[in-house]
Amino acid sequence: MSFREEMVARAVKFLLHPKVVDAPLSKKISFLEEKELTREEIDEALKRAESPESIGAAASTSKAKAQRETIQRFEHAGVQGVITGGVLHLSAVAAKDLGADAAGQARQVLEQIDAVLQAKGASRSRIISATVFVRNAQTDGGAVAAEWELWLGGENHPAFACVEAGTAVPAQLVTIQVTAAM
């Protein structure tokens, strides 16, 4: 028996779509008949859609789609963030002790980032990108960069930017924003 393979494959994809899978069988068949599939092609598509491989693939696709569409907002130890599509996005993290110098504030910020990463099941090695904001790049940039390098341990360097930026709080010398894969 010969089938129009492309038509059967499209029918299987249609039958496994999350919005279609629970529809009445009669409606699915009517739709496929409107698309001019033969009865044999419809039967083959239904058979393939019921196979464990197809069901597993559909579930995997649905799970991946749901993961991409879900947005989880959180706050951990004063640090706000969002997880979506398997990626963790942290807001700019600031030091708690603003009496420390830039290097000291950078160490505090990096400790906070570590705590959030661990709490959310990620790690430094999973950081995709980082933006470091310093109040004065000339006086503080070198010290902050040294702390960053020491914290990374010489490996797993993410995409990185260091930007001079003022803040509403003059004593705030460093903030760091990171994005990490889960």
TrEMBL record:
**Membrane-traversing stretches:** none
Keyword flag Transmembrane: yes
Q: Which GO terms describe its molecular function?
A: signaling receptor binding
This protein's GO CC annotations: peroxisomal importomer complex; peroxisomal membrane
UniProt keyword terms in alphabetical order:
Membrane, Peroxisome, Protein transport, Translocation, Transmembrane, Transmembrane helix, Transport
Membrane topology note: Single-pass membrane protein
A Pfam family recorded for this sequence: Pex14_N
Q: Does the keyword Repeat apply?
A: no
**Gene3D superfamilies with a match to the protein in the record:** RutC-like (3.30.1330.40), Winged helix-like DNA-binding domain superfamily/Winged helix DNA-binding domain (1.10.10.10)
**Residue ranges of domain Peroxisome membrane anchor protein Pex14p N-terminal in the record:** 4-48
Say where the protein is mainly found: membrane
Q: Which domain of life is it from?
A: Eukaryota
Q: Where in the cell is it found?
A: Peroxisome membrane
* GO biological process annotation, one example: protein import into peroxisome matrix, docking
Instruction: Return the similarity comment.
Output: Belongs to the peroxin-14 family.
Subunit structure as annotated in this protein's UniProt entry: Interacts with PEX13; forming the PEX13-PEX14 docking complex. Interacts with PEX5 (via WxxxF/Y motifs).
What does this protein's UniProt record list under function? Component of the PEX13-PEX14 docking complex, a translocon channel that specifically mediates the import of peroxisomal cargo proteins bound to PEX5 receptor. The PEX13-PEX14 docking complex forms a large import pore which can be opened to a diameter of about 9 nm. Mechanistically, PEX5 receptor along with cargo proteins associates with the PEX14 subunit of the PEX13-PEX14 docking complex in the cytosol, leading to the insertion of the receptor into the organelle membrane with the concomitant translocation of the cargo into the peroxisome matrix.
For this entry, the protein name equals: Peroxisomal membrane protein PEX14
